[in-house]
Amino acid sequence: MYDSKVSFTLDTICPWTFIAKKRLDQALEQVRASEAGSKCKFTLHFEPYQLHPDFVETENKDAWYLQNKHMGNPEAQKIFQEHMNGLVEPLGTRFNFGGDMGNTVHAHRVIQHFQEKKGPEVANKLIDGLYRRYFTEAKHPAADSTLIGACVEAGIDEAEAKKFVEAKDEGLRDVKSKIRMISMDVDAVPVVIVEGKRRDITLTGAKEVADYVKTLETIAKESG
Q: CA angle, 50 as apex, 185 and 54 as ends, to 5°?
């Protein structure tokens, strides 16, 4: 069986990566249960990207979107919010547009550390926990409590998680370097790269479930 690495480049405050991750999860579930799943093992791997690397530590989410994305137009913001919920409701969730947003570098630091130490399944659960807390529970994306809670939910010992989360300098230089390197090739997220025996396929933007299924099946067919 061919082992295909599925690289998912994201920022934890990007709603399009949240949508793409849910759709990709559905596609992976379908393909793993199909004949293609017997030919190819797909393993998710997460790559860090920051939409706003110089972003402040904390900013009111609703106020920031109103000023920076919708030119101070509340009606435009309302239409945007309704549209985004229309996209995620079929995926079984809704956005909560309240709460604070902020710089995500420490979220990426934690993700990359535990992905390396604990493996892809733990990293996948950690991503899902961070996404849910920020997008549906309106929690700060990089607060210690958010990060520690998501770690524990992913199966990481609370004391271990707390020790790393609170050691702000540990792994910080490495993750900043990785973000800079990825930013040389990526200017928008999500980016999904599915590696195959004959070729790799890259999908940019939040694609439909069917698009991800087609890509996974193509890689399985060519690599099986």
A: 115
Separation between Cα atoms, residue 28 and residue 33, nearest integer Å: 8
Residue 18, classified by CB atoms within 10 Å of its CB into exposed (0-12), middle (13-18) or buried (19+), is buried
Could you list the beta-strand ranges (E) of 58-139.
59-60, 100-101
pLDDT digits (tens, 9 = 90+) for 21-38: 999 999 999 999 999 999
Neighbours of 132 (CB within 10 A): 15
End-to-end CA distance of the chain: 7
Give the C-alpha separation, 16 to 90, whole Å: 15
pLDDT of amino acid 130: 98
Q: Residue 142 phi/psi, 5° resolution? A: -135, 15
The predicted model scores a pTM of: 0.96
**Are 51 and 14 in contact, with CB atoms under 8 Å apart?**
yes
Of 70, 92, 90, the C-alpha closest to 81 is 70
Going from the C-alpha of 68 to that of each of 60, 63, 73, 149, the distances in angstroms are 12, 8, 10, 30
DSSP state string for 26-63: HHHHHHHTSGGGGTEEEEEEEEE--S-TT--S-EEHHH
